[in-house]
From TrEMBL:
<dbReference type="InterPro" id="IPR002579">
    <property type="entry name" value="Met_Sox_Rdtase_MsrB_dom"/>
</dbReference>
<dbReference type="InterPro" id="IPR028427">
    <property type="entry name" value="Met_Sox_Rdtase_MsrB"/>
</dbReference>
<comment type="similarity">
    <text>Belongs to the MsrB Met sulfoxide reductase family.</text>
</comment>
<feature type="domain" description="MsrB">
    <location>
        <begin position="14"/>
        <end position="136"/>
    </location>
</feature>
<dbReference type="GO" id="GO:0033743">
    <property type="term" value="F:peptide-methionine (R)-S-oxide reductase activity"/>
</dbReference>
<dbReference type="InterPro" id="IPR011057">
    <property type="entry name" value="Mss4-like_sf"/>
</dbReference>
<keyword id="KW-0560">Oxidoreductase</keyword>
<protein>
    <recommendedName>
        <fullName>peptide-methionine (R)-S-oxide reductase</fullName>
        <ecNumber>1.8.4.12</ecNumber>
    </recommendedName>
</protein>
<dbReference type="Pfam" id="PF01641">
    <property type="entry name" value="SelR"/>
</dbReference>
Length: 158
């Protein structure tokens, strides 16, 4: 069970956050779009920290779980907390995939595939535009004004 409040944003919070999104962020997060491969800002990010949901700020992945999948999108083999993601069967474009969305706000993040490295065998393939990043030692975002749970480890802690 997550120590973060996973209650969805209120309608007013959702409207305020949506108003501040770029067109690309809206297309990916709210309309289930995909950014072009090999162009995302976090593809080659080597800094230590935590990747968060761009929409609501929920922590999703630690940098220590990031790996170069060669696919053109940031990829991770493990989640920050399994309860922070929800999975949806995606049959678009003639494929059968598993879509990943933020468990708190429902924003589209990317897809997960069963071809990742040990120890999980998962490849969480994410759109950079759907993510935020907090460097190690910095505070996690509190975009919904709920406070960050006390005792949360530093962003890159395992």
């Amino acid at each position: 069970m997550s120590r973060f409040d996973l209650t969805p944003p209120t309608d007013a919070q959702r409207q305020a956050i949506t108003a501040g999104l770029t067109p690309d962020e809206r297309r990916v997060l709210l309309q289930h779009g995909t950014e072009a491969a090999f162009c995302g800002v976090f593809l080659d990010n080597k800094k230590d920290g935590v990747y968060t949901c761009r929409f609501c700020g929920l922590p999703l992945f630690r940098s220590s779980a990031k790996f170069d999948s060669g696919t053109g999108w940031p990829s991770f083999f493990a989640t920050y907390d399994d309860t922070h993601l929800r999975y949806i069967r995606d049959t678009s474009y003639g494929m059968v995939r598993t879509e990943e969305v933020c468990a708190r706000c429902g924003s589209h993040l990317g897809h997960v595939f069963p071809d990742g490295p040990p120890p999980t065998g998962h490849r969480h393939c994410l759109n950079s535009v759907a993510l935020g990043f907090v460097e190690q030692g910095e505070s996690l975002p509190d975009l919904l004004g709920r406070g960050v749970p006390e005792g949360q480890p530093e962003p890159a802690a395992d």
